[in-house]
């Protein structure tokens, strides 16, 4: 679908990075819905592309007051356009965002400059770091689904394995955006049996072993 010009004014988001701070190569970011409206669709595509691509929410929505992490590939591209579609069809767009420098995209931000967000890997930030880890399957069963979402969120988000599975004895790298460290994990095995672990400090974990 070709992009259409949005007639409504779009509120800007200021992504800040301190002097001398190296830019992250991870363009993933979190949408925070501070509006009274439900967000039905989110599109994020490189600024040099002509189509919006897929709805990043899939079958999910972002309720007022909730947040959602948009996972984007770390392929060297940082400049993205973002389109938000609310319940009822109202939409807004943010153009030419450097999402590698951005932690949160806040919807419903008051007029004027947005509060500065903590840069990724900023020294001294509370519970900030690299939450990525390796999933090690020593359970003897095939893992078909893996969910990892910040403990502050109300939904599990997308299946981190996508079309992949983790065979017994195999290891799978789980890539998460720099920032929040405390995650909830849900493992779903072949046959539907699941196990969950809450409030995992993923920044302190290199290998998460499933038994």
UniProtKB/TrEMBL annotation:
Reading the lineage from the top rank, the first entry is: Bacteria
Q: Which UniProt keywords apply?
A: Signal
* Signal peptide bounds: 1-22
Which intervals of the chain are annotated as region Disordered?
107-132
Sequence ranges of Polar residues compositional bias: 119-132
Q: Can you name this protein?
A: Secreted protein
Query: According to the entry, what is the taxonomic lineage of the organism?
Result: Bacteria, Pseudomonadati, Pseudomonadota, Alphaproteobacteria, Acetobacterales
């Amino acid at each position: 679908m070709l992009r259409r010009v949005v007639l409504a004014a779009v509120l800007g988001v200021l992504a800040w990075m301190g002097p001398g701070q190296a830019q992250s190569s991870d363009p993933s970011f979190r949408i925070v819905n501070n509006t009274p409206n439900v967000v039905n669709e989110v599109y994020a595509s490189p600024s040099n592309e002509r189509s919006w691509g897929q709805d990043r929410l899939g079958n999910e929505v972002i309720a007022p007051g909730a947040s959602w992490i948009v996972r984007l590939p770390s392929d060297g591209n940082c400049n993205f356009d973002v389109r938000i579609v609310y319940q009822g069809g109202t939409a807004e767009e943010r153009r030419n965002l450097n999402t590698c420098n951005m932690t949160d995209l806040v919807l419903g931000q008051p007029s004027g400059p947005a509060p500065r967000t903590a840069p990724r890997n900023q020294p001294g930030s509370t519970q900030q770091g690299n939450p990525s880890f390796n999933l090690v399957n020593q359970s003897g069963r095939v893992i078909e689904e893996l969910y990892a979402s910040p403990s502050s969120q109300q939904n599990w988000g997308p299946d981190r394995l996508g079309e992949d599975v983790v065979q017994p004895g195999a290891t799978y790298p789980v890539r998460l955006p720099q920032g929040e460290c405390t995650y909830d994990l849900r493992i779903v095995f072949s046959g539907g049996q699941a196990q969950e672990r809450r409030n995992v400090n993923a920044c302190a974990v290199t290998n998460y072993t499933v038994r």
